[in-house]
């Protein structure tokens, strides 16, 4: 196919999509006015899109509609709107768009986050819920504690490398929980492979703006020859697919080999594989749900923990208040444990505020509307991509006074049930309805434990330069999907010699 022919086909497809969009645009929710053919393409900012979406929310309201080459894109900017559509009308809002680049070309169609809604998705979700439901979380406690104590020891030994320690912790903890694999060095091959996969998903495959590529809008481009000028995405996808599939195959094969040798540790995979042989389909499902777990959790954990340190550095009064609560309970004689959680309401508030302040995946992952719908008197066309603007929900000044500030006390105020739900970020930062992250209970337990132990044993302060002047931490972000800050200067030190001893003893015992 010649370049001219390809361009003509592109123009014809765009024209057809635009003409169709004119019909569907009638009575759609408010939003920026689209241009012919390309729609609102020029309105999008594919870096930190959540900020642009929040600006649209300020201008157009709770529900904002745009289109890209005729495909609808809807932003839900309040918890009420997201709950109304993604939860109460979940059966028609739980599909995923046809993600040609990510799913079909890069090989992510078996990862539950990208799976289309149907029997296959429901089967994968039931499998994950059977091992990750709230009732199963105590089974993972020894793994969580062992990784937490080892992380604390590394943080005490070389605090200046805190971001690398968080990366290793998030990766090694996930590999331990999912595969029973213990990471022992920073250059562990399984850890490096996980980081490579995450970099691809967060900064390459999804970097075109929440995972939307031109081939997703114009699927016929999937069939253009990879040698054609402008078809570089095909060559990239072929290389990326190899990385994605290797990331699923190799650690799972390691688990199978360990089970055959009789030395496999308790983990997600062994819990589901059991002692009896499983059929090929179930094994395939376990392999890909395991891969989905470790892809989904590492960056979310890294984002939240790096913001936790940032919050403790910038808001020392909150840190000291949480430390005092822990000290009053433990007497400084032991590390806090999951059994202490109910007795530490301020630490709980710190965790909730950290989730809100961070908003790890600020636009979530897109849903797809499966049939025409009407909301608030406005038509939403079938096939519209739906984004929950979690950033807006967690920074809505009507719900959170001074939303840019870190204020754990807001969760200790007496409010009615409706306000309490809107203020509880746990109910929406992990997604909505049938697409809510099935690992949210495990993530919650892990984050609480590591934050409580860090507060019990460490102090966080602003760094100073050679002249003694305070260095204010700056927040810089270079990830297109997750709000992972670049490393900022700070001072992390043990609270006391006794705190160091507690960590050392716990790390050795684990």
UniProtKB/TrEMBL annotation:
GO molecular function annotation: heme binding; iron ion binding; monooxygenase activity; oxidoreductase activity, acting on paired donors, with incorporation or reduction of molecular oxygen
GO-annotated cellular components: membrane
Principal localisation: membrane
Protein name: Cytochrome P450 monooxygenase
A family per Pfam: p450
Alphabetical list of InterPro entries matching this protein: Cyt_P450, Cyt_P450_CS, Cyt_P450_E_grp-I, Cyt_P450_sf, Cytochrome_P450_fung
Protein localization: Membrane
UniProt key word Transmembrane helix: yes
Entry annotated with the keyword Membrane: yes
PANTHER family: P450, PUTATIVE (EUROFUNG)-RELATED, P450, PUTATIVE (EUROFUNG)-RELATED-RELATED
Co-factor requirement: heme
Positions of heme binding: 437
Gene from which the chain derives: CYP502B15
